Amino acid sequence: MENQEQKPQPTQAEIEAAHNQWTRETLDRANKHLAEKGILPKTILDKESRYLVPMCAIWKIKSQQGKTYWVVSGNLPTDHVEVTAASNARDALRYFSFQWQMKAEEIMSTGAREKAQVDFANLLVNRAQGLYELYNNEKLWASEPA
Fold first, then answer.
1. Is residue 51 part of a domain?
2. In three state form, how does the secondary structure of the chain look?
3. Which of 8, 46, 58, 124 could form a disulfide with 89 if both were Cys (CB 3.0 to 4.6 A apart)?
């Protein structure tokens, strides 16, 4: 019988450090995405943002230009929409889910033949389904105001 070493369980401090690092990296991706679109972030509306570690974060970010956006980032494509598209983080997840399904359908309906396009469309469908499952999970939103 082989001697198998058991990995020690992470401490609460290590878990919190990993969580904080993931949150910083996810926010960096969200800010970079906005900057690439010509939107300069000013303020993160933390109370309305949600962090579903390690899957995704939904950031509510006010820009220097005065508009406010929902930005999704994490283990999925980073995307944004003006805050008028959804009243809260949960509805923003549903919005991105539907948008990504439509975007994937559009890619495939135009006769996408390049592997990268097909792979991206499949990724969008997969992540859209995941977002909808998060949206639909009542336990995640139990503490949300109605």
1. yes
2. CCCCCCCCCCCHHHHHHHHHHHHHHHHHHHHHHHHHCCCCEEEECHHHCEEECCCEEEEEEEECCCCEEEEEEECEEEEEEEHHHCCCHHHHHHHHHHHHHHHHHHHHHCCCCCHHHHHHHHHHHHHHHHHHHHHHCHHHHCCCCC
3. 58
Note whether residue 103 is domain-resident. Answer: yes
Domain that holds residue 124: 12-141
Residue 6 resides in a domain: no
Is residue 2, in this structure, part of any structural domain at all? no
6-31 pLDDT tens trace:
778 889 999 999 999 999 999 999 99
Residue type, 101: Q
